[in-house]
Design goal:
binds calcium ion; two-stranded antiparallel ribbon; 180 residues; OB fold (Dihydrolipoamide Acetyltransferase, E2P); single chain; alpha+beta; 5 helices
Amino acid sequence: MKTLYLLLGFSVIIGLALLATPLVAPSFFTTTKTATMYVTDTTTSLETHLATTTQFRFPCKGRALCWEGTVTHITDGDTLEVDGTKIRLALVTAPEMGKPGGLEAKSFVEKLCPIGSKVIVDQDDKQSKDSYGRVVGLVWCGDKNLNAELLYAGLAKIDTTVCSRSEFQDEDWAKKYGCH
Ligand SMILES: [Ca+2]
């Protein structure tokens, strides 16, 4: 008799678990599907890495990569590395090192977004990478838009030849400094 009760109790537990499965399953499968789709869209190790980490959508625009990372190197006024990935600032161009204004632009970046600081990278949806394979994007250092700040400071210019190929061409700062 005791065995019968035990079997009955066990059956009830199994039955309840089966009833609960459809309630839990949809959200579980939806999450898995989203993650899988993201991995399918990616091609590089950076993107694969990002697919498995938390995505920071704000204040990014579009659907391209958006992540918070650490500044690991500053090359010059328009190129830096975040988590070891080279980032070419979208739309803006600063003088190269060794040219007049090059050092000033780099120093400005070092001050606004020092090595070791956290930044958010918003990859340009219309020109995700440049011809050197660098990620093209907008970099947020705290609440400062680095691309725009370089223009405001007079340390960089808009490269008007790429306006039509940038997601950011309609931003106020882009229009004010050369994209029409
Ligand atoms: Ca974007």
